[in-house]
Amino acid sequence: MEDRGKVFDFGNFCGKHLNFRVDPCTARDETWSRRFAVAVHRNSEKRVRMGRAIDPAEALTRELGERVMANIQIREALRGEGEARLAELILYISQKCVNDPKFGATKLNKILYFADFMAYGTYGRPITGVPYCHREMGPAPQRLRLVRRYLEANRALIVQKKPLREGREQHRTIALRNPDLRDFPPDDIAMVDGMIKFFWDLDAEDSSELSHQMVGWNVTEMNEVIPYRSIFFSDPPLTVQEEEYAQTLVKRGLERGLPVG
User: Fold this and answer.
1) Helix or strand run (H / E) with residue 253
2) To 5 degrees, how large is the angle CA 99–CA 101–CA 104?
3) How far is it, in rounded angstroms, from Cα 114 to Cα 191?
4) For 39-96, what is each residue's pLDDT tens digit?
5) Of 44, 94, 230, 253, which has fewest CB within 10 angstroms of its CB?
6) Coil, strand, or helix at residue 133?
7) Residue 29: helix, strand or coil by DSSP?
8) Rounded to whole angstroms, how far apart are CA atoms 44 and 62?
9) Higher pLDDT among residues 205 and 8, named by residue
Protein backbone atom coordinates (compact mmCIF):
# COMPACT_ATOMS: atom_id res chain seq x y z
CA MET A 1 0.00 0.00 0.00
CA GLU A 2 1.40 3.35 -1.03
CA ASP A 3 2.22 5.74 1.80
CA ARG A 4 0.67 9.05 0.71
CA GLY A 5 2.08 11.04 3.58
CA LYS A 6 3.55 11.12 7.06
CA VAL A 7 1.61 10.94 10.31
CA PHE A 8 2.60 13.74 12.66
CA ASP A 9 2.19 12.68 16.29
CA PHE A 10 1.92 15.61 18.72
CA GLY A 11 0.72 13.47 21.62
CA ASN A 12 3.81 14.09 23.77
CA PHE A 13 3.41 17.83 23.32
CA CYS A 14 -0.30 18.35 23.73
CA GLY A 15 -1.41 15.76 26.26
CA LYS A 16 -3.18 13.52 23.76
CA HIS A 17 -2.69 12.21 20.23
CA LEU A 18 -3.34 14.72 17.49
CA ASN A 19 -2.79 12.60 14.41
CA PHE A 20 -3.23 14.39 11.10
CA ARG A 21 -2.41 12.61 7.86
CA VAL A 22 -0.85 15.21 5.62
CA ASP A 23 -0.76 14.59 1.90
CA PRO A 24 2.51 15.90 0.35
CA CYS A 25 0.41 17.70 -2.26
CA THR A 26 -1.62 19.48 0.39
CA ALA A 27 0.94 19.83 3.16
CA ARG A 28 0.78 23.59 2.85
CA ASP A 29 -2.98 23.69 2.81
CA GLU A 30 -4.39 26.39 5.08
CA THR A 31 -7.17 24.11 6.33
CA TRP A 32 -4.66 21.70 7.85
CA SER A 33 -2.74 24.61 9.41
CA ARG A 34 -5.95 25.91 10.95
CA ARG A 35 -6.90 22.47 12.36
CA PHE A 36 -3.47 22.01 13.85
CA ALA A 37 -3.36 25.48 15.40
CA VAL A 38 -6.84 25.21 16.90
CA ALA A 39 -6.15 21.73 18.30
CA VAL A 40 -2.86 22.77 19.89
CA HIS A 41 -4.40 25.88 21.40
CA ARG A 42 -7.38 24.00 22.87
CA ASN A 43 -5.23 21.25 24.37
CA SER A 44 -2.82 23.72 25.92
CA GLU A 45 -5.68 25.63 27.52
CA LYS A 46 -7.16 22.37 28.78
CA ARG A 47 -3.90 21.39 30.47
CA VAL A 48 -3.64 24.81 32.12
CA ARG A 49 -7.18 24.53 33.49
CA MET A 50 -6.36 21.07 34.87
CA GLY A 51 -3.36 22.48 36.70
CA ARG A 52 -0.80 20.52 34.69
CA ALA A 53 2.56 22.04 33.97
CA ILE A 54 3.41 22.58 30.31
CA ASP A 55 6.86 21.32 29.39
CA PRO A 56 9.12 23.43 27.13
CA ALA A 57 8.36 21.29 24.09
CA GLU A 58 4.65 21.74 24.56
CA ALA A 59 5.07 25.46 25.14
CA LEU A 60 6.99 25.71 21.88
CA THR A 61 4.28 23.81 20.03
CA ARG A 62 1.60 26.07 21.49
CA GLU A 63 3.56 29.14 20.40
CA LEU A 64 3.93 27.75 16.87
CA GLY A 65 0.20 27.03 16.78
CA GLU A 66 -0.62 30.57 17.86
CA ARG A 67 1.69 31.94 15.18
CA VAL A 68 -0.10 29.90 12.54
CA MET A 69 -3.46 31.24 13.74
CA ALA A 70 -2.10 34.80 13.78
CA ASN A 71 -0.81 34.45 10.22
CA ILE A 72 -4.20 33.13 9.08
CA GLN A 73 -5.95 36.07 10.75
CA ILE A 74 -3.57 38.54 9.08
CA ARG A 75 -4.12 37.01 5.64
CA GLU A 76 -7.88 37.09 6.11
CA ALA A 77 -8.03 40.52 7.73
CA LEU A 78 -8.43 42.83 4.77
CA ARG A 79 -11.11 42.10 2.22
CA GLY A 80 -10.96 44.34 -0.80
CA GLU A 81 -10.24 48.01 -1.31
CA GLY A 82 -12.90 49.11 1.18
CA GLU A 83 -11.19 47.56 4.18
CA ALA A 84 -7.80 48.79 3.01
CA ARG A 85 -9.24 52.30 2.97
CA LEU A 86 -10.83 51.70 6.39
CA ALA A 87 -7.44 50.72 7.78
CA GLU A 88 -5.85 53.95 6.55
CA LEU A 89 -8.73 56.02 7.94
CA ILE A 90 -8.29 54.39 11.35
CA LEU A 91 -4.66 55.48 11.31
CA TYR A 92 -5.58 58.97 10.11
CA ILE A 93 -8.29 59.54 12.71
CA SER A 94 -6.10 58.11 15.49
CA GLN A 95 -3.29 60.44 14.48
CA LYS A 96 -5.55 63.50 14.34
CA CYS A 97 -7.16 62.68 17.71
CA VAL A 98 -3.95 61.97 19.59
CA ASN A 99 -4.52 65.09 21.75
CA ASP A 100 -8.22 64.43 22.34
CA PRO A 101 -8.54 63.06 25.90
CA LYS A 102 -12.03 61.73 25.12
CA PHE A 103 -10.98 59.76 22.07
CA GLY A 104 -11.52 55.99 22.28
CA ALA A 105 -12.99 53.04 20.40
CA THR A 106 -16.59 54.25 20.63
CA LYS A 107 -15.73 57.71 19.34
CA LEU A 108 -13.62 56.21 16.53
CA ASN A 109 -16.60 54.12 15.41
CA LYS A 110 -18.89 57.14 15.34
CA ILE A 111 -16.47 59.30 13.37
CA LEU A 112 -16.10 56.52 10.81
CA TYR A 113 -19.85 55.92 10.62
CA PHE A 114 -20.88 59.54 10.21
CA ALA A 115 -18.07 60.28 7.75
CA ASP A 116 -18.99 57.30 5.56
CA PHE A 117 -22.74 57.84 5.69
CA MET A 118 -22.60 61.63 5.32
CA ALA A 119 -20.31 61.19 2.31
CA TYR A 120 -22.90 58.83 0.83
CA GLY A 121 -25.65 61.35 1.43
CA THR A 122 -23.60 64.28 0.09
CA TYR A 123 -21.64 62.79 -2.81
CA GLY A 124 -23.69 59.69 -3.56
CA ARG A 125 -20.83 57.40 -2.54
CA PRO A 126 -19.31 56.39 0.82
CA ILE A 127 -15.63 56.84 1.65
CA THR A 128 -14.89 53.18 2.38
CA GLY A 129 -18.08 51.34 1.44
CA VAL A 130 -17.59 48.76 4.20
CA PRO A 131 -20.75 47.48 5.93
CA TYR A 132 -21.71 48.98 9.29
CA CYS A 133 -23.66 46.99 11.89
CA HIS A 134 -26.03 47.75 14.73
CA ARG A 135 -24.03 47.48 17.97
CA GLU A 136 -25.06 48.27 21.53
CA MET A 137 -23.05 51.50 21.60
CA GLY A 138 -24.15 52.53 18.12
CA PRO A 139 -23.11 51.77 14.52
CA ALA A 140 -19.66 50.29 13.91
CA PRO A 141 -17.81 48.78 10.94
CA GLN A 142 -18.72 45.10 10.74
CA ARG A 143 -15.12 43.85 10.67
CA LEU A 144 -13.47 46.66 12.60
CA ARG A 145 -11.76 44.36 15.08
CA LEU A 146 -10.17 42.25 12.36
CA VAL A 147 -8.92 45.32 10.52
CA ARG A 148 -7.53 46.67 13.78
CA ARG A 149 -5.77 43.37 14.47
CA TYR A 150 -4.28 43.53 10.99
CA LEU A 151 -2.83 46.95 11.76
CA GLU A 152 -1.51 45.77 15.12
CA ALA A 153 0.07 42.67 13.58
CA ASN A 154 1.81 44.85 11.01
CA ARG A 155 3.07 47.22 13.70
CA ALA A 156 1.05 50.12 12.33
CA LEU A 157 -1.17 50.56 15.40
CA ILE A 158 -1.33 49.85 19.11
CA VAL A 159 -4.33 49.97 21.43
CA GLN A 160 -3.75 51.77 24.71
CA LYS A 161 -6.12 50.82 27.53
CA LYS A 162 -6.87 53.56 30.02
CA PRO A 163 -9.00 52.95 33.15
CA LEU A 164 -12.02 55.20 33.56
CA ARG A 165 -14.57 55.73 36.30
CA GLU A 166 -17.03 53.01 37.26
CA GLY A 167 -14.63 50.28 36.20
CA ARG A 168 -14.78 51.12 32.48
CA GLU A 169 -11.85 51.26 30.08
CA GLN A 170 -10.99 53.61 27.26
CA HIS A 171 -9.39 51.86 24.28
CA ARG A 172 -7.29 54.46 22.47
CA THR A 173 -5.86 53.57 19.08
CA ILE A 174 -2.36 55.00 18.59
CA ALA A 175 -1.00 55.21 15.03
CA LEU A 176 2.61 54.07 14.65
CA ARG A 177 2.96 55.18 11.03
CA ASN A 178 1.52 57.86 8.82
CA PRO A 179 -1.64 56.92 6.90
CA ASP A 180 -1.48 56.41 3.15
CA LEU A 181 -3.98 58.94 1.78
CA ARG A 182 -2.95 58.86 -1.89
CA ASP A 183 -6.21 57.22 -2.99
CA PHE A 184 -8.47 59.55 -1.00
CA PRO A 185 -10.02 62.55 -2.80
CA PRO A 186 -9.77 65.88 -0.92
CA ASP A 187 -13.55 65.84 -0.35
CA ASP A 188 -13.27 62.56 1.60
CA ILE A 189 -10.55 63.88 3.90
CA ALA A 190 -12.49 67.12 4.40
CA MET A 191 -15.54 65.08 5.44
CA VAL A 192 -13.49 63.08 7.96
CA ASP A 193 -11.90 66.27 9.33
CA GLY A 194 -15.37 67.76 9.74
CA MET A 195 -16.54 64.74 11.75
CA ILE A 196 -13.43 64.84 13.94
CA LYS A 197 -14.08 68.51 14.70
CA PHE A 198 -17.78 67.87 15.35
CA PHE A 199 -17.12 65.04 17.85
CA TRP A 200 -14.08 66.63 19.53
CA ASP A 201 -15.89 67.84 22.67
CA LEU A 202 -18.11 64.76 22.98
CA ASP A 203 -17.24 61.74 25.11
CA ALA A 204 -18.10 58.13 24.31
CA GLU A 205 -21.53 58.32 25.94
CA ASP A 206 -22.51 61.52 24.09
CA SER A 207 -21.23 60.13 20.77
CA SER A 208 -23.16 56.92 21.29
CA GLU A 209 -26.36 58.76 22.21
CA LEU A 210 -26.12 60.87 19.06
CA SER A 211 -25.79 57.79 16.86
CA HIS A 212 -28.81 56.23 18.56
CA GLN A 213 -30.92 59.00 17.08
CA MET A 214 -30.16 57.86 13.54
CA VAL A 215 -33.03 56.07 11.79
CA GLY A 216 -30.68 53.40 10.43
CA TRP A 217 -29.71 52.32 13.94
CA ASN A 218 -33.30 52.47 15.25
CA VAL A 219 -34.85 50.28 12.54
CA THR A 220 -32.22 47.52 12.69
CA GLU A 221 -31.62 44.73 15.20
CA MET A 222 -28.41 43.83 17.02
CA ASN A 223 -25.59 42.93 14.58
CA GLU A 224 -27.79 43.68 11.55
CA VAL A 225 -26.21 45.64 8.69
CA ILE A 226 -27.37 49.27 8.48
CA PRO A 227 -28.14 50.31 4.88
CA TYR A 228 -26.25 53.35 3.60
CA ARG A 229 -29.49 54.71 2.13
CA SER A 230 -30.85 55.10 5.67
CA ILE A 231 -28.97 58.40 5.83
CA PHE A 232 -31.77 59.90 3.73
CA PHE A 233 -34.42 59.12 6.37
CA SER A 234 -35.16 61.14 9.48
CA ASP A 235 -37.61 60.97 12.35
CA PRO A 236 -38.09 64.56 13.60
CA PRO A 237 -40.76 65.44 16.19
CA LEU A 238 -44.18 66.37 14.83
CA THR A 239 -44.96 70.02 14.31
CA VAL A 240 -47.99 71.65 15.93
CA GLN A 241 -49.80 71.60 12.57
CA GLU A 242 -49.08 67.88 12.09
CA GLU A 243 -50.36 67.04 15.57
CA GLU A 244 -53.55 69.05 14.99
CA TYR A 245 -54.12 67.32 11.65
CA ALA A 246 -53.63 63.92 13.27
CA GLN A 247 -56.18 64.75 15.97
CA THR A 248 -58.64 65.84 13.25
CA LEU A 249 -58.26 62.49 11.48
CA VAL A 250 -58.84 60.62 14.74
CA LYS A 251 -61.97 62.66 15.44
CA ARG A 252 -63.36 61.96 11.96
CA GLY A 253 -62.69 58.27 12.40
CA LEU A 254 -64.54 58.18 15.72
CA GLU A 255 -67.53 60.00 14.21
CA ARG A 256 -67.75 57.38 11.47
CA GLY A 257 -67.46 54.52 13.93
CA LEU A 258 -64.08 53.42 12.61
CA PRO A 259 -61.62 51.64 14.94
CA VAL A 260 -58.90 54.03 16.03
CA GLY A 261 -55.68 53.09 17.76
Assistant:
1) helix 240-255
2) 105
3) 9
4) 555 555 555 555 555 555 555 556 555 555 544 444 455 788 999 999 999 999 999 9
5) 253
6) strand
7) coil
8) 7
9) 205
Q: What SS3 state is found at 235?
A: coil
Q: How far apart are CA 185 and CA 123, in angstroms?
A: 12
Enumerate the domain spans of the chain: 6-77, 80-232
Decide if 65 contacts 43 (C-beta within 8 A): no
For residue 100, pLDDT beyond 90? yes
- pLDDT given at position 35: 54
Chain-centroid distance of CA 1 in Å reads 50
* Paired strand residues for 134: 139
How far apart are the C-alpha atoms of 66 and 35, rounded to whole Å?
12
CA distances from 40 to 21, 45, 66, 102, 198 (A): 16, 9, 8, 40, 48
pLDDT at residue 99 is higher than 90: yes
- Radius of gyration of the chain from its Cα atoms, rounded to whole angstroms: 26
More confident position, 12 or 232: 232
